[in-house]
Design brief:
By secondary structure, this protein is an alpha/beta fold. The protein contains six helices and five strands; from the N terminus they run βαβααβαβαβα. Helix 4 links the parallel strand 3 and strand 4. The protein has a five-stranded parallel β-sheet, sandwiched between helices. The model has no long low-confidence stretch (mean pLDDT 94). The longest helix has 21 residues. The N and C termini lie close together (10 Å). The chain is 50% helix and 16% strand.
């Protein structure tokens, strides 16, 4: 079986990536997972860590954004599929940006979103390859590739 690389876009405040990875491993699926920097402090401070102290928060965020966007672009370009998780608890602008990037790169995109986000995500879901409600369903879609 061919190993696929899956970019896991979405909020970084819980262990959904680890959960999905463990489930994929239990199914013996040959998947490699990559994604955004999940250490929030590292992500926010990477610009100053590399470029030095910035004059104010605008420049600090701008420097971090440049480096984080580069990281996302490289890893997403190397990915075969993107899974974008929209949760209910956190604001989801990074997920929306990553999903839009996947669409622009013509990457197969699986959107995971709860039913109460059907309306706000209707246009994005329409552009995705598949939209599901759970990470288990997303994993089943990928598992189907190997049948």
């Amino acid at each position: 079986m061919t190993q696929l690389t899956i970019y896991l876009a979405g909020q970084i405040h819980d262990n959904w990536r680890e959960d999905l990875s463990n489930k994929a491993q239990a199914l013996d699926l040959p998947l490699n997972f990559v994604g955004p920097q999940t250490n929030h402090d590292r992500s926010d401070n990477v610009g100053e860590s590399i470029l030095g102290e910035q004059p104010n928060n605008y420049y600090k965020d701008n420097a971090a954004s440049d480096i984080n966007n580069l990281r996302t672009q490289v890893l997403m370009n190397k990915s075969d599929i993107v899974i974008a998780l929209f949760g209910e608890k956190y604001k989801q602008w990074n997920t929306a940006m990553d999903a839009s990037t996947a669409i622009a790169l013509n990457k197969p995109l699986i959107i995971v979103r709860p039913t109460d986000l059907i309306h706000p995500l209707k246009e994005l879901s329409n552009k995705a390859s598949v939209t599901v409600e759970t990470i288990d369903q997303a994993l089943s879609v990928i598992q189907y590739i190997y049948e």
